[in-house]
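Sequence, please.
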């Protein structure tokens, strides 16, 4: 095992995970468990920026915990916990806010995107504006070498580095570690079913992983394909076509994928067949994870125990860092 550490999280702002989460980040995170010290968590405090209903939030957290575990987290190898179970995240965020400027924060995507989507400053809550500071706290508490995430989180990892750097410079001491973003060039940005934008729950262009079959089927059958191909007998384009992007991601029957691509290029296959095969591939690919999820659902005590053990381990490291940070700034009782 390399002597390296990584940390990453998922925001339970939605009720379940999608294939963008999986191929963009989770699959990579799972692979790292065998090689490095891994800290993964459900960023429940982050979800407050958008979820303002108690039952919905509790349901989302429960689902995302189950999804994440079922997809292959191994609690014997990784430290898995809920952000809110480790109070040092909130403590660290209060400190770190002092090492980043308002103008830098105003340049952050999540905030700017909201403004572009027509929201005005009056409707943007401070939790959303401060999101990158809490995220920097999530990361820097564990002094990780890297942060495995999708491309959309690059800017957040970069600001965490900037904050760590300005903290260290202020005290002329290498207290915080500047971590590297670990983003896959091939799968760092998974396209949505609309074929244009990044797959994202809030854009409604997702293919979920554990939703009911009927929902997943609908998501797949509604997927955009080659907009220039009007009939099944027209030759079509495979490159960049979302249905084929998805086939390449999770249809492990490569001969079938090649056959479909060839026939598509030659105008010898209809969209419906391509999508039905994609749906079947989805069912096969996630079958084991679905079974695992059902087992975990039947065993809530085990899930509670995993989270408790994870939080205890995370607190050890997080409290050592916060003590060092308090000591550095002069907050010593
Ligand atoms: P979140 O919950 O939106 O997404 C979880 C992970 O999935 C990745 N992802 C994608 N990757 C490729 N293509 C896509 N279409 C796609 N959609 C989502 C995200 O990049 C992410 O890696 N702010 C974070 C959660 C967080 C965090 C942290 C992450 C909170 N604290 C500390 C790392 C470290 C978020 O909202 O991710």
């Amino acid at each position: 095992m390399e002597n390296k550490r990584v940390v990453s999280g998922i925001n339970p702002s939605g009720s379940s995970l999608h294939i963008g989460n999986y191929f963009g980040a989770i699959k990579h995170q799972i692979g790292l468990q065998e090689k490095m010290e891994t800290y993964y968590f459900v960023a429940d405090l982050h979800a407050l920026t958008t979820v303002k209903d108690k039952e919905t939030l509790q349901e989302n957290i429960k689902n995302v915990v189950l999804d994440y575990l079922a997809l292959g987290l191994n609690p014997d190898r990784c430290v898995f916990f809920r952000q809110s179970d480790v109070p040092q995240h909130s403590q660290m965020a209060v400190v770190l806010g002092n090492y980043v400027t308002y103008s830098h924060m105003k340049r952050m995507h999540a905030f700017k995107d909201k403004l572009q989507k027509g929201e005005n400053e009056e409707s943007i809550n401070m939790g959303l504006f401060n999101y990158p500071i809490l995220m920097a706290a999530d990361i820097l508490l564990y002094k990780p070498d890297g942060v495995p995430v999708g491309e959309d989180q690059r800017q957040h990892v970069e600001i965490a580095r900037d904050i760590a750097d300005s903290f260290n410079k202020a005290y002329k001491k290498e207290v915080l570690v500047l971590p590297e973003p670990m983003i896959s060039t091939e799968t760092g940005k998974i396209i949505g079913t609309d074929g244009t934008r990044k797959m994202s729950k809030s854009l409604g262009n997702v293919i979920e992983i554990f939703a009911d079959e009927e929902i997943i089927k609908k998501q797949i059958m509604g997927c955009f394909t080659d907009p220039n191909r009007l009939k099944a007998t027209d030759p079509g384009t495979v490159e960049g076509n979302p249905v084929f992007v998805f086939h390449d991601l999770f249809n492990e029957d490569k001969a079938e994928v090649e056959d479909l691509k060839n026939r598509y290029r030659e105008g010898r296959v209809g969209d419906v067949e391509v999508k039905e095969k994609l749906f079947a591939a989805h069912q096969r690919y996630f079958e084991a994870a679905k079974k695992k999820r059902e087992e975990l659902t039947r065993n809530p005590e085990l899930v509670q125990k995993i989270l408790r053990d994870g939080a205890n381990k995370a607190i050890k490291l997080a409290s050592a860092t916060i003590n060092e940070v308090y000591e550095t700034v002069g907050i010593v009782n």
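The radius of gyration is 21 Å.
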